[in-house]
User: Which sequence fits this backbone?
């Protein structure tokens, strides 16, 4: 794309760029000078060490080598001294000390922390400090004192609607660690799949996963991988609803007679575990006991959301059971079920986590409510003595701009009594319209902004600053191995049938993919519909369009010209190509947007006034051009609308 | 970049694109209709099968899923039937039958071969046939009968000058298999490193590798990985020269007293094994015996190139030994050494391969000469009864255009007597200026064109057709996991310090990196100089510039405008950035080239004649602007020169 932004803003560049840190540390005092990062860069561990810390140093050093392209030479002088005060403690517990102190001067750097986890957090900050400068790669002199605002900072990944192989999980764990998140919430079972090997009940994965499940060895590998990066793994086995995949192998657990088949659609479905039979609880005792030993974290998520009551209402035995136990409605039946499940979890040494719906009287006070409904629900949970984590406002599958999530504070509107009950928050990546190929781009870089909300002081709220730092942070994240920026290129090339895809790239960069609400697919085989369309290669938020916010007219003219030509360039590429058929109308719209932009610039640049009402007509036209097509919205419209509005003034 | 080529050439697009096959099969008969590739696509093995074939089917199916983005569903109808006639034979031998026959119709496809290897080759052809069409992804109806021209089609990779981890090796093996190469020549020892674990002589890797070596388990893994993909692995341990790294741990093997240190410079160095001592040969017997059991292929490369005679000349004992054995010069001493090494290799069941220099009387007739010097050398080898493989003309480190290598025929100028001695050819990737990060882009996609030269009939020589197919093939190769196209983006972002790097991308796309001859680095620590410069992110051959060959004036004007603006866009980005300092003069030149182009278009488009001599002056200016800077050549000059020459006519 032909963008000239920097030509027109030389002063912006002459200024010292702000430190591209995210999450912004609690306290940053900038010094003068810088530490040079060259082939001699080395980390020296002072005092006690262990294999875990040495491995972390090796990973950190390899990252520095990767992000700078410098071939580090063993045995040179140390440039970063590490002091880990209590590194012998290997537990990774909610609320552990994650603070660290980092000092960088031209002579060297030091990183001090009380815990191994604190050291990990400091390494990430140091890595973010490294940038090219007057003498090559360098880290600026700075003193940083940092600790998190909330002890529970999570990302939930749904591996059921679409399967996510171990490599996807691990690279996302690396990226999580890079922005100091500390809970990986693994949504492991749902109507569309049961994704863990059970040795006690092997038909769960054999019949409920299409062969896509994690072996127990893989689970242990991922848990260890996360632990080494200071991340707890909280598994979720969603029940009593969202259990269709369990019932394929074990129909006797259901509240209605089988047979059951793996669900291929999206939505809320009828199948639910039978809460009235003791055999259900003995099964759960077996399964949860097995899973409890596989997942060492003391917190265990039992889901509990979106229970459809129809099977329970239709069942004579369940209704009889309810009367016998004085359970007057399905909510009370579910509450009974929850209490039973909690007892099983307690027996296996676990504290229960559940979605809003599990909240209700009679649960242990160590219960944690994950709130996808928000404030009132958290207040209610707190009133009952439970703790909460907030997910309302952090649903990544909505594909909203980073700023939308960034503005949601976990404590906004929370009354003083509730505050002590709030452990933190979690972003959620539900995977109806997300595959292993696209998931990274649906989580990152927006997740980095959310991570700042979870870690940094409440006062860190400047959205412009967030976006300014997100540009380099998004690029820096690539060195962790995450593919949020790299995956789209080959996807667009694929759509173009191997031809140069420049026009498609221009269109993609001017577009934003709609989230789940704009993408409802009620196909019988929804889970089998390929996610290889244009929308899947389009980012949730257009960095290109955001960049144009401060562009001058010459740059805008170049961009608008490129947009205006898009349809003509796309047409031959789309010829005889079914995959591009839906894209052509979008290209036509982009060209129309570009032409309006060019005409507007003609008026502005020439000083010749536009005819009466011309601008108003264009605004109406732009509104029409902004209507989604092919599940994509033209972000380009925002830019032209702003230019047209200058004429209106 | 703003390119409008296709806008101006709609007819080119309306035509059916040629099949993007590379190497072009021996016989292709196009039919009518196509086979649809959808979620039901499945491979059915007819007749006998084994785990190796099933694994190959799984890999192939996973690739189809990846390249189409389709989530394949187990259990649907078979779309490709596979018949492997003699799949029980697990050997992978020089000259084995690699032929296959592939029939695709709208009803289904069948792939038949005599061997497992033939099936693998056919899978790659089928995968290349898949492209988006009127009904989604499809493979055109076609009948293909194919077999290779040469039985030895290799790629040599130097892992000594720069270390290449297992992941790099394996992804290159996957890409090799994709274009039907069948020999991976692994250059494992040199002055700068000894890269394999020896258990008999552990100081080889302990002191000679900086810790960068393959364990024996890793070697076995790579050999098995290659075998499963129909690729033989031929190891090279270069001797008696190029052995500095051996002598660090075992100085007693040298022809001069030690101590020795790992070589950090590039070039030809003095250290050489002592050919006069029996202890040298007993060491080699031990080492080669150990390595012979690690590498199952019957061919074993002992290097033998570039032996510097100075240590031998200075050594009294070696000179006395030479007199005693009637060896009248260093060449004869080396020939003696070669014969001894060959005997050792024979004892361990291996046939010897060596570079040109080993050629000479007295070797076994099963010796294979790898010719980096070319024709005369091969004729001489043949006269002595030896076989040859050609590498002259296929040195990838020269970073020449694909067409240059493509035009080199292994049999060009070879007389009829020599022809039967020529087994095939190998491209060589020496790694002085190539790292794990950049190596893919220095091999691919040019290697695909070379692979066509090695596989396809001699008559397949149309360079235009090769380039036309190379565009989609380069993109298709990405699905193998090779990073030749994806690695440069993050490298440019790194240079730009995390800022949007659009201007840098424009410059890189208009540039071509110089090869080894333009990049001599005589630094004492040459091997430690980072390969993170602009040149390292620039391709050897500019696809962008090649695309512009047929562009019309409006498109050229857009491109020239972008070039003309490049310096101004680069300047603020380069401010205070040491890594971009060397790039600015190049950006200045690109802008000058763009301005000449624009002025030329003004004359051409307006019909107003240019002043007398104007064009000639521009040609001179362009020549100056084409002079390399920062080890990069501006390919953009070619485009503007062509436009200016229109004025001269």
Assistant:
């Amino acid at each position: 794309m032909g963008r000239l932004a920097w030509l027109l803003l030389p002063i912006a560049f002459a200024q010292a760029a702000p430190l591209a840190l995210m999450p912004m540390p609690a306290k940053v005092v900038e010094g003068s000078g810088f530490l040079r990062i060259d082939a001699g860069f080395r980390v020296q561990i002072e005092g006690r060490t262990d294999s875990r810390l040495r491995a972390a140093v090796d990973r950190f050093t390899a990252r520095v080598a990767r992000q700078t392209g410098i071939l580090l030479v063993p045995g040179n002088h140390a440039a970063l001294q590490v002091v880990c005060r209590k590194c012998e403690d290997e537990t990774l517990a909610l609320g552990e000390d994650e603070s660290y102190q980092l000092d960088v001067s031209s002579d060297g750097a030091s990183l001090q922390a009380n815990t191994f986890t604190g050291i990990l957090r400091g390494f990430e900050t140091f890595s973010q400090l490294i940038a090219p400068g007057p003498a090559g790669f360098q880290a600026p002199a700075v003193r940083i004192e940092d600790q998190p605002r909330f002890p529970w900072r999570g990302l939930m990944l749904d591996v059921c609607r679409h399967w996510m192989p171990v490599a996807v999980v691990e690279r996302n764990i690396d990226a999580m660690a890079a922005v100091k998140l500390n809970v990986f919430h693994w949504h492991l079972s749902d109507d569309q799949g049961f994704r863990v090997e059970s040795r006690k009940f092997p038909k769960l994965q054999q019949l409920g996963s299409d062969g896509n499940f994690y072996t127990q060895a893989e689970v242990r590998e991922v848990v260890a991988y996360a632990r080494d990066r200071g991340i707890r793994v909280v598994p979720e086995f969603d029940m009593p609803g969202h259990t269709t995949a369990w019932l394929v192998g074990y129909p006797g657990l259901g509240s209605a007679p089988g047979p059951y088949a793996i669900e291929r659609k999206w939505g809320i479905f009828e199948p639910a575990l039978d809460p009235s039979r003791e055999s259900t609880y003995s099964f759960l005792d077996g399964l949860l006991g097995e899973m409890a030993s596989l997942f060492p974290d003391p917190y265990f998520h039992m889901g509990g959301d979106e229970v459809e009551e129809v099977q329970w209402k239709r069942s004579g035995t369940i209704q009889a059971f309810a009367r016998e136990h004085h359970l007057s409605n399905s909510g009370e039946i579910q509450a009974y079920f929850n209490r039973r499940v909690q007892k099983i979890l307690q027996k296996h040494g676990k504290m229960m986590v559940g979605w809003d719906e599990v909240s209700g009287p009679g649960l242990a006070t160590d219960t944690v409510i994950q709130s996808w409904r928000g404030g009132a629900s958290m207040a209610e949970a707190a009133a009952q003595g439970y703790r909460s984590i907030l997910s309302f406002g952090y649903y990544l599958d909505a594909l909203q701009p980073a700023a939308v999530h960034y503005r949601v504070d976990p404590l906004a509107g929370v009354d003083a009594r509730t505050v002590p009950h709030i452990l933190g928050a979690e972003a959620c990546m539900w995977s109806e319209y997300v595959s292993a190929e696209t998931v990274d781009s649906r989580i990152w870089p927006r997740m980095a902004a959310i991570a700042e909300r979870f870690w940094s002081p409440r006062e860190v709220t400047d959205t412009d600053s967030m976006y300014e730092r997100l540009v380099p942070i998004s690029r820096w994240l690539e060195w962790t191995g995450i593919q949020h920026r790299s995956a789209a290129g080959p996807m667009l090339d694929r759509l173009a049938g191997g031809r140069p895809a420049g026009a498609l790239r221009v269109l993609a960069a001017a577009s934003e993919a709609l989230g789940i609400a704009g993408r409802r697919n009620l196909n019988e085989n929804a889970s089998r519909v390929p996610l290889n369309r244009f929308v899947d290669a389009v980012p949730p938020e257009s960095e290109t369009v955001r960049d144009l916010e401060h562009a001058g007219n010459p740059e805008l003219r170049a961009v608008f010209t490129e947009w205006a030509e898009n349809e003509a360039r796309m047409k031959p590429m789309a010829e005889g190509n079914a995959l591009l058929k839906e894209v052509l109308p979008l290209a036509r719209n982009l060209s129309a947007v570009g032409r309006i932009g060019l005409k507007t610039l003609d008026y502005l640049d020439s000083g010749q006034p536009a005819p009466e009402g011309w601008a108003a007509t264009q605004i109406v036209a732009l509104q029409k051009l902004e209507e989604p097509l092919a599940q994509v919205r033209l972000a380009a419209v925002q830019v032209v609308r702003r230019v047209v509005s200058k004429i209106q003034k």
Q: What stands out?
A: The longest strand of chain A covers residues 136-146. DSSP finds 27 helices and 18 strands in chain A.
